[in-house]
Structure prediction request, 263 residues.
Amino acid sequence: MSEKTWQELYSTVGAALKPSPIRELLKLTKRPGMISFAGGNPDPAIFPVKEFAEAARIFGERGQEVLQYGMTEGFEPLKDFLANWMAPKMGRVTQPEEMLITTGSQQVTDLFCSVMVDPGDTVIVEEPTYPGALHTMKNHRVRFLGVPCDQDGMQVELLPDLIRKARAEGQRIKFIYTIVNFQNPSGYTLSAERRRRLLEIAVETGIPIYEDDPYGLLRYNGTDQPTIFSMDTQGMVLYAGSFSKILAPGSRVGWVVAPKDVT
Prediction:
């Protein structure tokens, strides 16, 4: 079948899909001798290769269980580990039914958009923000409402007016997307004061927050800021994490914690 014939059979959604700009950039990083600032690739010298080899050796103890069909929500022992390991950042030990294991935090974006947005809906994002997330959301045909950043992250004080104007124009705002720590590409971290104010605005406007935090455990100095999730008492925050930057991106393991109605 010719390429043209295939294209004629595409669904409306399929025809609108665009190639990932990140994927195209990463192709260039494979060139011999290339020193690239285009991709956020961890240093392969620090990958725990020996530890992975040891894990493979002892895999025989539970291999039959792990390799069998499992729960859609993820391997229960891994969820238990994450719930306890992340408890200091989350403010509490999250429950298994609040967590979903994914193939990375970007899959969280795709799944959340599948659940939350219709074509033409609006998502609030930092300006600028991670191109990979924008690409995923664009494939769900959303509109973007950008909020400028400064050294303390998203200028959340601008949000009430921006939301009011957007709603007056008939826009349906579905969620606020923020990379709270070492934001990509700016590198800024959202201050604790702004995190509290952002949550207040979310509660006041009824717009949930998608807190994407793949870089939060990369801090080498300074003080960790509290997660917005840890401040939330009304089920307004979805929190996504990943092993891609702190273990190895090839592990393809991420997770999301959210209200039970979402997971």
The chain is about 35% helix and 15% strand. The CA atoms of residues 128 and 186 lie 7 Å apart. The chain has a mean pLDDT of 89. The first strand starts at residue 99 and ends at 102.
